[in-house]
Amino acid sequence: MIAEAAFAELVRLLPPGRLLNDLADRDAYSFDASFGDYLPEAVAQPTDKEQIAAIVQWANRHLVPLYPRGAATSLSGGPLPVQGGVVIDMSAYPKRLAIDAENMLATVSPSVITAEVHRAAEAAGLFYPPDPSSSAVSTIGGNLLENSSGPKGLKYGTTKEYVIGLELVTPTGAIVRTGGRTVKNVTGYDLTRLIVGSEGTLGIVTEAIVRLIPKPKASGTLLATFPRFADSGVALTRVLAAGILPAAMEVMDEFCIRAVEKYEPSGLPTDVEAILIIEIDGHPAAIEEEIALCRELCLANGAASVRVAADSSEQADIWRARKLVSPAIARLGSAKISEDATVPRSQIPAMMQRLKEIREKYRLNLVVFGHAGDGNLHPNILADKRDKDEMKRAEAAVADIFAAAVALGGTLSGEHGIGLMKAPFMEMELGPEGLALMKAIKTAWDPNGIMNPGKIFPAPGMTKAVLTYDGQG
Amino acid sequence: MIAEAAFAELVRLLPPGRLLNDLADRDAYSFDASFGDYLPEAVAQPTDKEQIAAIVQWANRHLVPLYPRGAATSLSGGPLPVQGGVVIDMSAYPKRLAIDAENMLATVSPSVITAEVHRAAEAAGLFYPPDPSSSAVSTIGGNLLENSSGPKGLKYGTTKEYVIGLELVTPTGAIVRTGGRTVKNVTGYDLTRLIVGSEGTLGIVTEAIVRLIPKPKASGTLLATFPRFADSGVALTRVLAAGILPAAMEVMDEFCIRAVEKYEPSGLPTDVEAILIIEIDGHPAAIEEEIALCRELCLANGAASVRVAADSSEQADIWRARKLVSPAIARLGSAKISEDATVPRSQIPAMMQRLKEIREKYRLNLVVFGHAGDGNLHPNILADKRDKDEMKRAEAAVADIFAAAVALGGTLSGEHGIGLMKAPFMEMELGPEGLALMKAIKTAWDPNGIMNPGKIFPAPGMTKAVLTYDGQG
Known about the structure:
CATH topology of the largest domain in chain A: Uridine Diphospho-n-acetylenolpyruvylglucosamine Reductase, domain 3
Largest interface: A-B, 92 and 93 residues
Strand order of the largest sheet of chain A: 15-12-14-13-17-18-16
Number of domains of chain A: 3
Strand content of chain A: 15-25%
Shape of chain A: globular
Number of helices of chain A: 15
Low-confidence stretches of chain A: 469-473
Radius of gyration of chain A: 23 Å
Structural class of chain A: alpha+beta
CATH class of the largest domain in chain A: Alpha Beta
Helix content of chain A: 25-40%
CATH architecture of the largest domain in chain A: 2-Layer Sandwich
Oligomer: homodimer
Distance between the termini of chain A: 15 Å
Largest sheet of chain A: 7 strands, antiparallel
């Protein structure tokens, strides 16, 4: 509980009306796109970095937890105020976005919607490749703190590969800059990349410098259907072995295909085990040749059909099938548990086999789609929130998914972050020493444990996924 | 001084003959490719990671500094044993290199020469882009601890962008793994990228997993000469603005050109201020068109001549001019102070102007070449080691170079690392808080200050470049 005097002090650190305190307001900040329901004690809406620094200093004096929050599209509980305290809502923060075309950089404040970065870059003939599926609503600040990246990781790398400088309010309330405006920078430790993906536990980002690249001149897209899922993996490997590096290689399993076709019929075949979407970008001459070769390789490796988009409208049609997956499968259950366990690409068939076993073992609605090119699958479990037995089975299935990913040489999370849900599994992947190295950084930077406590690091005694948490820990 | 009993203990941790102790051997480990001459107390040549872990534990018990060392091509004093203690020479470490073509990865031990990684990747139709000019002799372990990257940073990113997993002996002697075999991984903090570029101060790398990409199908190269240096910068910007992302854009100033032409006459014009070499790689059809456009853009922006390589032998001829720069300028003085201050690309003309002023102010032989595409210039000062006044002027000039880079929004080091030489300037770029954040990590991981002490972090009272250190600090 924040003492009354401390609260009065906090009010004075913010512009009028920027500290929300009544229950209705606080309630609106008690959830995100994941699970759980945690009521904050207050919500601060800072409008400049000095206010943030002052709030962090205040929090250290009064030992009050802080939780930075962007658009709250987190699928891992990133912004949830799990230990009480104050949510730092960045929505009132000035939305600055400057493109430096000559240096191919953008300087952006954390509150800017990621799609705005895409639009501004493209208007300057440039390109910002990271594109999480939430990019039309999520903020760049949230994207970079979770390192959420989307379909283009294989060719273009993740968000981390684009962030070269940050301005940060540290966990003790200092304002610092890391990195800068150059792609090459080895002046001391790479704090920029340490902070990207730190899920708000190492400070609050107040500005980012991201690098841009020339916009690819053209792109081509094809959709291939595979009666056998394993063949889609072989085709994908053959494409890469032919020296082609697609901008995206997306896969949907049979359950996704059926859900999409049921949600909005568009002629997808419901009798195949996999759809593979391949997008190539680059020089027009190269694309034509490479798309033709991709088509051949799919057909030679078990594809039943291959549709090559003739123009941008047909490209959009193909992508529409992929983009309908999330809304379509959301219909299948009131609880949608969206995972992002990632494996080395060659292990995708083995992972699919494990997921099939998990589906059967726990009798769950488990569908799989994702970024096949970088091994980043999205197994989604659709369950009924009110069915306690089913939710328990889902909890157990999630634990098995993580174990399978790690056993196959993969990782708990490719892009959603650890947050609350995966914290209990950290040691399984990292071992006690690996986790201790991370914890040592956290403790050194945030001795009072102010910044986003309860995330990433497992609380003592946490042993399983926390899907059924419901309120106040 | 290592006590006799401690020394006897150390001997038992290594295979017979793998602890070097006599003066001649130790002397061979007292220098690197930078400045200074520091005699180690002993040299250990471990042959497995368990030996390294045992040595690190021993060093913590006896408070003996350790200095990991690859091929000692460091230009910033990285492996120098500046506070006595033991050099960990990785040259006896097993040289393992496994290409996983299906996942486009290489698993490599730190003692492998970087050029071997290039060769093995290419034999599998793949490509490892980082290519520091020392790659024929330097080790991958050294490259990644310094994040040294070479000419391809603009298109392909730096070494850091390719290292996705590490095995590390920590500063307290635990063996841990960071990252893994997937490009996407947000399971906790990114320790992999924290360690890459940490100059051996955060542990000893015993294995790295690097990602590879499909080998570009073809490449094209041109050499343009510019009577006015500034025009080369304009041409380069126009090329990027045309949506072309060259694999390399290398620049040489008039002093370099004359040195190369004198060293090995090959018909370079000695009356121009700049040579710009542009290399494009990718699909053959795209290359032909893009090289032609680069040629036009150079000629339209002040180039006196443009030579396009007709085949791979002419490409090699063009690169030969660039590769002769180092040996050619080494003839100009017994001391070659090679810097790597990096600025945003648009600031290259301003930086060249500052370098001209510095050359004149200190009456020094200062030549400039480098990776213009990513703003990573290599100003080199050639001086006479025995001329104390000239060396003092060089020291002052180096300080001015750093100040100019930082004033222009750049950084002290693009790829050589901070080491000894630049440590006094860290606070100028990072401020006291930024430096304190780095130091907090170092202290948390290495409480006894065992791992490569005296590097990156300025010692109290250090205020200037340390070119004239000569022995034992």
